[in-house]
């Protein structure tokens, strides 16, 4: 038999075909051809199980396989399976008619009673991705049907083909790609192995990779023993961990899987094993990796699979954006292998899946908090940026996980908001005092802790946004966050107020010494005797300024800063009566800089001036 033909394209399915040719990653052809081989094997296994086909005597149930062989010298790749094979008529039907779905037709006839089928894709459509890298493609196939003639299909452009009899004797299909010159890298064994591991690491049929060596290179030298041909290497795990029942998986297996798949040699903090069957079929494992505080640079990897076939990393339409900080695998057979973003955005099942995954993550956090709080507190520092980001992005997630939100204090305790309020607040007051830099604000923190008030540490990039989110969401609770340098309330005693005239005179002295005409001055007796003064900055204006800087925008407003003097301190007593001369100006400038240093570092010329002034004041002290 020998005949020529032209590829027939089903017009109503032309767009999926075009999309196949517009893949951004050429290596996708490997996934498509191996998937087709898996389909062919799955079909044959199904027919054997139903008694409609039989295996050869030498074949066993463990004989199923796909072989991928690279020949760098010839610039070819060959994909061979021992599946169902095809007759000449089937080749013309499934290959020569591009948009015809062989798997779909097969399923209509042989789908199991429980709805499971194990058929991955649509044979005949993904096959044409081979022409993204090949100048010529040859299919050599023999059907399982008794007496069927093996055939060879050859095409050099994907549009015209030759079909002829073949001398193939074994059931199955081999597809050989003669690679374009610019795509011969795929015939390199290392590149091929990497590509197979990326796309086919968990496909359900054993996949073996090998290479054909140059005969001259492999020939033994005189006196040498003949070299043993390298054995094909299996590159996939046909029974991935996510398909097992959680009760059957050990912690060691979870850890081993994490290291193998994500090449992360840190230990995961904990994990969630997903297993849903209704209203959609979804399985997977999500790991909580150890996050750095600068979490924005630590995007995780969540791999999406369809029946163990890799689809893509980090598809935000399926995985909520804030969960992208996790690492994991999700296998969802209900999603097609090749989907458009617009389809995912508008698909009801996808939205339900995203909601299910979010709920399971929140439930796991609650379980960890309620049953293993001591361990939960140990890794809270690693996961809290992710949790806070999730709360901001998804209000339902926040409502569910709210009881498990804890706050680390400067004393090393971890308190929920309720615990903090019960311990530190009176009546309806709900002010949470916090520090954004524990070391820099140590003196300010001590002022509060000396008065028996806990100070929580909120020192990551997300915290400014998070506390604003909490204040808005919990506005009925009149929740308010106050940084330790935002006000002197609670740090001062009642006492005789300084007269307006005295306060005005001191204010003029400090404005002159600092050059800050907008500086406000207050004088109050502090509960602490060893602090001369503190600078307070209005909470809201400072937050706005910091957030605008965080997002790279110059939208900062003038900060409302107040210098609060401690009337109990001898230096302030001296300034109340001192003449406004050079010495008083030096003292005012020094007091102001010391108060500023309790908040943040002095920079550039201001630090130079501070050091010169400090030396001058020490000299005066000695001379005195």
From TrEMBL:
GO molecular function: ATP binding; ATP hydrolysis activity; ATP-dependent protein folding chaperone; unfolded protein binding
Gene: htpG
Protein family according to the UniProt entry: Belongs to the heat shock protein 90 family.
Annotated segments matching region Disordered: 216-236
Organism from which the protein derives: Candidatus Pullichristensenella stercorigallinarum
Keywords assigned by UniProt, alphabetized: ATP-binding, Chaperone, Nucleotide-binding
SUPFAM superfamilies xrefs: ATPase domain of HSP90 chaperone/DNA topoisomerase II/histidine kinase (SSF55874), HSP90 C-terminal domain (SSF110942), Ribosomal protein S5 domain 2-like (SSF54211)
CDD domains for this protein: HATPase_Hsp90-like
Domain of life: Bacteria
Protein name: Molecular chaperone HtpG
Binding site for ATP: 32, 36, 81, 86, 101-102, 173, 341
């Amino acid at each position: 038999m020998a005949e020529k033909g032209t590829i027939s394209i089903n017009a109503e399915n032309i767009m999926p075909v075009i999309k196949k040719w517009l893949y951004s990653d050429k290596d996708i052809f490997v996934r498509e051809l191996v998937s087709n081989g898996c389909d062919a094997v799955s079909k044959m296994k199904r027919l054997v199980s139903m008694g409609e086909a039989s295996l050869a005597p030498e074949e066993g149930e463990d004989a199923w396989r796909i072989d991928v062989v690279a020949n760098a010298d010839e610039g070819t790749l060959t994909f061979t399976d021992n599946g169902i094979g095809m007759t000449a008529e089937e080749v013309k039907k499934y290959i020569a008619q591009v948009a015809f779905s062989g798997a779909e037709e097969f399923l209509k006839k042989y789908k199991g009673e429980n709805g499971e089928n194990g058929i991955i894709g649509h044979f005949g459509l993904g096959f044409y991705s081979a022409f993204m890298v090949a100048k010529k493609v040859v299919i050599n196939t023999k059907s399982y049907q008794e007496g069927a003639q093996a055939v060879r299909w050859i095409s050099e452009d994907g549009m015209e083909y030759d079909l002829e009899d073949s001398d193939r004797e074994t059931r199955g299909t081999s597809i050989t790609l003669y690679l374009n010159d610019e795509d011969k890298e795929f015939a390199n064994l290392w590149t091929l192995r990497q590509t197979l591991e990326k796309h086919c690491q968990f496909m359900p049929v054993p996949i073996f990779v090998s290479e054909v060596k140059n005969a001259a290179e492999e020939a033994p030298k005189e006196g040498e023993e003949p070299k043993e041909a390298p054995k094909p290497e299996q590159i996939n795990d046909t029974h991935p961990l996510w398909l097992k029942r959680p009760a059957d998986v050990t912690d060691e297996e979870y850890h081993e899987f994490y290291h193998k798949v994500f090449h992360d040699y840190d230990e995961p903090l904990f994990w969630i094993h997903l297993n849903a069957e209704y209203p959609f079929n979804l399985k997977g494992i999500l790991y909580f990796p150890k996050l750095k505080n600068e979490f924005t640079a630590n995007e995780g990897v969540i791999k999406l699979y369809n029946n163990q076939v890799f689809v893509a990393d980090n598809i935000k339409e399926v995985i909520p954006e804030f969960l992208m900080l996790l690492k994991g695998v999700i296998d969802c057979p209900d999603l097609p292998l090749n989907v458009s973003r617009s389809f995912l955005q508008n698909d009801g099942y996808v939205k339900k899946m995203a909601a299910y995954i979010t709920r399971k993550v929140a439930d796991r956090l609650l379980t960890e908090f309620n049953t293993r709080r001591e361990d939960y507190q140990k890794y809270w520092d690693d996961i809290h940026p992710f949790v806070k980001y999730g709360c901001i992005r998804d209000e339902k997630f926040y409502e569910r996980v709210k009881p498990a939100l804890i706050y680390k204090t400067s004393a090393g305790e971890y308190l929920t908001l309720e615990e903090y309020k019960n311990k530190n607040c009176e009546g309806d007051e709900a002010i949470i005092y916090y520090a954004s830099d524990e070391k820099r604000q140590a003196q300010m923190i001590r002022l509060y802790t000396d008065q028996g008030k806990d100070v929580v540490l909120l020192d990551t990039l997300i915290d400014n946004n998070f506390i604003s989110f909490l204040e808005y969401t919990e506005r009925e609770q009149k929740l308010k966050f106050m940084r330790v340098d935002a006000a002197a309330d609670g740090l001062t005693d009642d006492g005789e107020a300084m007269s307006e005239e005295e306060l005005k005179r001191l204010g003029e002295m400090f404005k002159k010494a600092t050059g800050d005409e907008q500086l406000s001055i207050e004088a109050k007796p502090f509960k602490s005797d060893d602090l001369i003064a503190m600078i307070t900055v209005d909470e809201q204006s400072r937050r706005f300024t910091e957030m605008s800087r965080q997002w790279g925008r110059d939208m900062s407003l003038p900060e409302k800063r107040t210098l609060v003097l401690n009337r109990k301190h001898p230096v302030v007593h001296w300034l109340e009566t001192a003449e406004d001369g050079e010495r008083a100006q030096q003292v005012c400038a020094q007091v102001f800089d010391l108060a500023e240093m309790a908040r943040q570092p002095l920079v550039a010329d201001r630090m130079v001036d501070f050091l010169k002034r400090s030396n001058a004041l020490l000299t005066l002290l000695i001379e005195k």
